[in-house]
Amino acid sequence: MIAPPDRTPLPRAFFDRPVLEVAPDLLGRVLVRTTPDGPIALRLTEVEAYDGPNDPGSHAYRGPTARNAVMFGPPGHVYVYFTYGMWHCMNLVCGPEGRASGILLRAGEVVEGAELARKRRVSARNDKELAKGPARLATALEVDRAMDGVDACASGETPLKMLTGTPVPSDQVRSGPRTGVAGEGGDGDLHPWRFWVANDPTVSPYRAHVPRRRRS
DNA sequence: CAGTCGATTCACT
DNA sequence: GTGAATCGACTGA
């Protein structure tokens, strides 16, 4: 008999720590997206850390802009960006405030509201693929730029909330280079920024960064 | 102000 | 395994 996931909201202090400390601790936690049609809950299985202005791979590397402003704000808020002309990806901002670090939510297991997620993820061949990949995850949860800046630690009825869930024991946590990030995985790469749950079928496959060929 | 390319996914071969 | 889709943020002139 396995204990049910803890529905207690994560306090803001959880996110007000160094991003490399928060990221592995996020695995097994539950993100609840409350839509007009009902809730969708996701157990996080794969995340990636981005450490603000000190991290060339981060959107915050070159300082604040209109797009990344939320990253420079208080921890526990959601940063959503639009990419490749058609997808959204979501992050959780980590502290301390002003550090502009964040954690990209790359994959998870839908544990509630799968029927709602399937409506958005028509091309998913099975439920393991509903949130297998950062853009798929955002699509499954109906997250777009309208959700940018939402506080995932606020009390009351909110569109996004982080719950305690069931943290993954550290011996089940794996780490490695980030996926699809320029300059990642090379010689000078010292940090394992990406964390996932060992042997979890919802974790997305690793892909090295590929510079896109110029259009003719 | 034009050029470049992205923290990706999907359809095909 | 390869290439297309698609648009807006950012860069540098």
Rounded to the nearest angstrom, the distance between the terminal CA atoms is: 59 Å
Please give the radius of gyration in angstroms: 16 Å
Could you list the spans in which at least 5 consecutive residues all have pLDDT below 50? Answer: none
- How much helicity do the residues have? 10-25%
Total helix count?
A: 4
Helix and strand sequence: EHHEEEEEHHEEE
Structural class: mainly beta
Count all strands and give the number. 9
Largest sheet: 9 strands, antiparallel
Tell me, briefly, the overall form: globular
What's the mean pLDDT score?
94
> Oligomeric form of this entry?
single chain
Strand residue percentage? 25-35%
Briefly say what this structure is.
This protein is 12% helix and 30% strand. It has helices at residues 12-15, 19-25, 114-120, 134-140; strands at 6-9, 30-35, 38-51, 78-83, 87-94, 101-112, 160-165, 173-176, 194-197.
3D structure, described in words:
With 216 residues, the chain is mostly beta strands. It is built from four helices and nine strands. The protein has helices spanning 12-15, 19-25, 114-120, 134-140; strands at residues 6-9, 30-35, 38-51, 78-83, 87-94, 101-112, 160-165, 173-176, 194-197. Strands 1, 2, 3, 4, 5, 6, 7, 8 and 9 form a nine-stranded antiparallel β-sheet that branches. The longest helix has 7 residues, at 19-25. The radius of gyration is 16 Å and the shape is globular. The termini are far apart. The mean pLDDT is 94. The structure holds a DNA duplex (13 and 13 nucleotides).
